[in-house]
Amino acid sequence: MSERILSVLVEDKPGVLARISSTISRRGFNINSLSVGPTNIDGRSKMTIVTELESVEQVKKQLNKLINVIKIVELDPDNTIESEVMLMKVSINKDSQTSVIEKANLSGAKSVDVGQDYAVFELTGTSKELKKFENLMKPFGIIEMIRGGRIAIQSNL
Amino acid sequence: MEDKLLSGAELVIRGLEHLKVSTIFGVPGGAILPAYDPLYDSPIRHILARHEQGSGHMAEGYAQATGELGVVIATSGPGATNLITSLNNALMDSTPLLAITGQVATEAIGNDAFQEAYTVGLTMAATKHNYLITDASEIPQVLLEAKHIATTGRPGPVLVDIPKDILNQKAKWIEPKLIDLPGYKPTLDANPKMIQQAVNLIKDSKKPLLYVGGGIIHSKANIELFDLAEKFNIPVVTTLMGRGAFPDGHELCLGMPGMHGNYTATTSIQNSDLLIAIGVRFDDRVTANPEFFAQNAKVIHADIDPAEIGKVRDAEVPIVGDAKSVIKGLIDKLGDTKLETSNWIQEINEMRESYPLTFTQDEDGPLKVPYVLEELQKMSEDDSIVVSGVGQHQMWISLHWKFTKPNTWLNSGGLGTMGYSLPAAIGAKAAYPDRQVLSLDGDGCFQMTCQELITASTENIPLKIVVFNNGNHGMVRQWQKIFYKSRFSASELTHHTPDYVKLAEAMGAVGLRMEQKSEVKDVFEKMLEINDKPVLVDCVVDPDDMVFPMVPAGGSNDVIILNEEDLKKI
After folding, report:
1. B285 Cβ contact list (under 8 Å, min separation 6)
2. For chain A, which ranges sit under pLDDT 70?
3. Which of A75, A98, A127 is the C-terminal boundary of a domain?
């Protein structure tokens, strides 16, 4: 099943995230990723919801019924700019230190904090790039990893 | 804007008066107490229920009978949680409801304060929308918005939760105005292109069938529906929620289809080549297994809620819009078209003759519900409002009662809430004191909310109640008999405890009893004569009677069980 990306414009009101997640979970739908943040318009937030649904039409309709949901657009994957931020804490020692930081930098990750036995990297990219980086770092020992949720915007092409 | 400061509580009551609310139902308590004080001076009638669930159903009954907003008020914590069943019930049956609940003071929210419940969270999935008020000045505007959301589009319940400190906070009355709700714009007018496509299908159809439900009643489109059916000779099936949308007794009216629908209605859907579905949602009680439902039919599906279209069955022509606008559009575009449906109607009439709805009432045998219903309808007024509970008696009423007007049949269709009948009937009678309101209930259902009989007596609401007393949870017993080898686990009540006649008397009503055919007429005569008090008839009926026709859950509507003999088919 292929991924579907919904871009949902909502009123920035208390409880709107709870309404949306409850509507989705109530119908037994799974979410791969959900992110939310303010937009350039006052009082409006945007959510990016990534799911793997056959019945995405039904989800869209159910979400549209929520009073605080203004607009739902399903993004065309071939025509979408997508990005996600990740923070990763990797264990290092004297032997591995240079190799870890070098590999990370080559991958485009930024070292944002380095201690005696760990380094924290920040990487922004597509989910594929983040996954690749995770695989790359795995052998050194990932202590902790956080992903910010995928955001996406339609290209004008 | 006036300069005078009002309390949040005063704004609530004034806001309700501004919305032209004349009757509300409720139970007071700590957090909502401030609102009850200005209510004391208000012309709004408050009916004091004995349980919040009852107050919610009363507001639903009021709304279903009138087609207008029903209003219920409750306190925080248990007051709000007790309301939830009625909110969910109203959501499932699209009943316009406004619930106002008190909440603990703003600073106590989230601290597990006395009588605190997370009302907005708990009711999120049981309402169309809900609000938590954070400033008293919002109250008039939110009440107006709440009514707007509850009564427009697909109607439903809206809850407004108000913390106690906000009820005491002073603010100015700002005349509320219906402002734009950016995320709420119900589509009322059907797209003319879709109407044209629908008309093309109708013109090509040999066996069209109107499959209509509660949407017709909410949209007050029964006259238009009548014109559409009559002018173009299209037969009509009315779902449980749509009974009364098209008059029983009319040649084109086939009645209720589905799990306990009559043979002709259910089978006509199966044989149809075009379902014109308006204000229905292809509920599982209608479709049985959707895979086998109306396999030969194309579908035109019109509904005001886009989420209903394609949910269960894909439609060749989906139409989003208000039922009245859709039907008017169809009539208009069909113009002088003559549909050749006489063969189809003949096929249906032959079915009706071969498979009539029947029952047998032995002279000396135990009473059968369909017989009692038939006798009662003969004696009752034409525009009487019938309110049922949930189960066997509900199905028998829907099958055997002749409904000729909309809003005269109130029941809990979607959620199937036992205990709905008595309080909902109280709500209906509060709306229409001069009309006959009949609560026709089961004994299991009645026992769930019977304390509201006290409400009826003390609030001077003289409705009529018939408790079909089979001493059992009848539908449960029927399923146990069919599917669980007659192992009647926990379905037996008793015929005699409580003594319903004494119970009625203890609650300030008149109690009567009938057990045999010879008593039916006299007892009903007595019941109908008493108009200054509620009357309850303990109608002792056969516990072994079963509702037929029947299509077992998940089965095919092609295999209809017509009687006990037929049970061998499954």
Report:
1. B240, B258, B259
2. 1, 157
3. A75
- Note whether A85 and A71 are same-domain residues: no
Q: Of A55, A75, A95, at which residue does a domain stop?
A: A75
Confidence at residue B179, expressed as pLDDT on a 0 to 100 scale: 82
Question: For chain A, what is the domain count?
Answer: 2
From the list B52, B116, B138, B224, the catalytic residue is B52
- Same domain for A69 and A129? no
Is the pLDDT at B22 greater than 70, yes or no?
A: yes
Which pair of structure tokens corresponds to residue B78? 């248990």
> Would you call B183 and A57 a contact, using CB atoms and an 8 Å cutoff?
no
Could A67 and B184 be called an inter-chain contact, meaning their C-beta atoms sit closer than 8 Å? Answer: yes
B482 sits in the region (left: phi over 0; alpha: psi -120 to 50; else beta) called alpha
CA distance A155 to chain B (A): 25
pLDDT digits (tens, 9 = 90+) for B112-169: 999 999 999 999 999 999 999 999 999 999 999 999 999 999 999 999 999 999 999 9
Q: Which residue from B132, B183, B311 is facing A68, i.e. has the nearest CB?
A: B183
Distance CA B65, CA B7 (A): 33
User: Where are the alpha helices (H) located in chain A, listed in sequence order?
Assistant: 16-26, 56-64, 97-106, 127-137
Same domain, A69 and A122: no
Instruction: Report the residue of chain A nearest B148, measured CA to CA.
Output: A67
Total length of chain A: 157
